[in-house]
Specification:
This protein has helices at residues 4-20, 36-47, 51-54, 62-75, 80-101, 119-129, 133-156, 165-189, 196-201. By secondary structure, the chain is mostly helical.
Length: 204
C-alpha cells in the first residue's frame, strides 16, 4: 500500500526536477483551450453558473470575473459570431486574472493539443483514474534518471591524483553539481524550502 507521505514526497520531488533542471519548456496548461480553466469556463457559460470559474481566481478578483461573465452572457445571445467573440473574451479575461493571481505573466490562449511534456498528463491521469500508483512510479523514475548522471560523474572523478589540480577541479565541479541537485530536491520534498538568502548560506 502506498503511503500518503510517499505520494506527496514523490510529487514534490519531480517538481524539483522540473523546476531546477528544465528551464526551456513551460509545463503550465491553465492557458490552453483544452486546459482545466477554460473547460470550467465553458461549463459556466453553458449553465449560467459563474461559481464554476470563481475557484480559479482569488477572492479579490472575483467581482471582475462576475462582471465579465455577465457581459459575456448578454453578448453571446446576439448571434453565433457574437457568441464566439464573447466566449473568447471571457476565456482570455479569466486566464489572465488566474495567472496574475499565481504571479505568472499572461501570454495569450494556447491551442488545444499542444505538447505539455509527460508530467502534466500523468498527473491529470492520476486524478481521473483515482489512483496515484502509476504517477508515483513515473515520478520516482524521473528523480532516478535525473540524479543518476550527476552521481556517476562524481563517483568516476572521485579518486583523482592529488597532484593533478585540473583533475581535482573536475571532481569538485561534479561534486558541487551533484550536491546542489540533491539539496534542491530535498528542500522541496521536506517542505522546508529556504529563501534565496538562506539557500546561499549553504551554497558551495
Amino acid at each position: 500500500m502506498i503511503h500518503i507521505s510517499l505520494k506527496i514526497k514523490s510529487l514534490i520531488a519531480v517538481a524539483a526536477v522540473l523546476l531546477f533542471v528544465s528551464s526551456t519548456q513551460s509545463f503550465a496548461h491553465c492557458d490552453g483551450l483544452d486546459g482545466p480553466v477554460i473547460k470550467d469556463a465553458r461549463k459556466a457559460l453553458e449553465t449560467g453558473n459563474v461559481k464554476l470559474v470563481l475557484i480559479w481566481v482569488q477572492e479579490a478578483d472575483q467581482d471582475e470575473i462576475i462582471s465579465a461573465f455577465n457581459k459575456t452572457l448578454a453578448v453571446r445571445k446576439l448571434s453565433p459570431e457574437a457568441k464566439e467573440f464573447a466566449d473568447m473574451y471571457f476565456f482570455e479575461t479569466l486566464v489572465r486574472i488566474h495567472r496574475a493571481g499565481e504571479g505568472a505573466p499572461y501570454t495569450g490562449i494556447k491551442p488545444a493539443g499542444r505538447d505539455l511534456g509527460p508530467a502534466i498528463p500523468a498527473a491529470d491521469k492520476a486524478i481521473e483514474s483515482g489512483s496515484p500508483k502509476e504517477l508515483v512510479k513515473f515520478l520516482q523514475d524521473a528523480v532516478h534518471d535525473g540524479l543518476h548522471p550527476y552521481y556517476m560523474n562524481t563517483v568516476q572523478k572521485k579518486n583523482f591524483n592529488p597532484n593533478d589540480v585540473n583533475a581535482g577541479r573536475e571532481y569538485v565541479k561534479a561534486y558541487v553539481e551533484f550536491v546542489h541537485y540533491v539539496e534542491k530536491i530535498y528542500l522541496l520534498t521536506s517542505g522546508s524550502a529556504h529563501s534565496e538568502e538562506g539557500a546561499e548560506k549553504h551554497s558551495h
